[in-house]
Amino acid sequence: MVKKINILAVIPARSASKGIPNKNIKKIKGIPLLAYSIIYALRSKIIDKVIVSTDSRKYSKIAKKYKAEVPYLRKKKLSKDEVTDYPVIKDALTQCEKIYKKKYNYVVLLRPTSPFREKGLIEKSYQLLKKNPKATSVRSVKKIDNHPYRSWILKNDFMFGFVKNIHEPYNIPRQKLPLIMFQTGDIEFIKRSTLIKGSISGEKVLPIIIKKYFDLDSAADLKKIKD
């Protein structure tokens, strides 16, 4: 008998946003921002449950309208500006396993601020973890445009190379520069064991490289979409 693999998709959407008030429910082409991630997750055939973690009853109502579940309201202490992803996602796993009475083998983190994802990221991430048993998670990344080896720090009228412990990194030929990636908000696919051990990523993170990336973080980003 094949063991059932349970996968939980979590969309974190707190109500307090200083840059753009109520950012997670701002309408983009007539659809609330958080709904894009809900729709994306529901299209996947390997996801068992799609939930929104929010502290807002208003957000909860919108999430349910788009067929996500909101089995609990997030505690205020987990909705503050300085709270990192880990306690929010660990809380979601703990709450859902208790409420739905099942153990989830994987948690998929889909941030609402990345509404325009490439197709198939959930399935591709799952396959990567299956092929690499030692991996702790999968994270979406993109190749950076400006290499940090070429960056400088200005101090007392003089410049110093940003990267230390390497002799003149700013003079290394482009062809010999190490490949450096920047994390995007499209997806994180996390093993349950990784979360239980106290991390959202773990030490063996696999990359899934994104070609096109958009993150809605500021009013300027919002304007780009509307223009």
Explained architecture:
This protein is of the alpha/beta class and about 230 residues long. The chain has 2 domains: about 5-140 and about 180-225, Spore Coat Polysaccharide Biosynthesis Protein SpsA, Chain A (Alpha-Beta Complex), CATH 3.90.550; about 145-180, no CATH class. Helices cover about 25% and strands about 20% of the residues. The protein has helices at about 35-40, 55-65, 85-100, 120-130, 190-195, 220-225; strands spanning about 5-10, 25-30, 30, 50-55, 105-110, 135-145, 150-155, 160, 180-190, 205-210. It has a 6-stranded mixed sheet, sandwiched between helices. Strand 7 (about 150-155) and strand 8 (about 160) form a beta hairpin. The longest helix is centred in the middle third of the chain and has 16 residues, at about 85-100. It is globular and about 55 Å long. The termini are far apart.
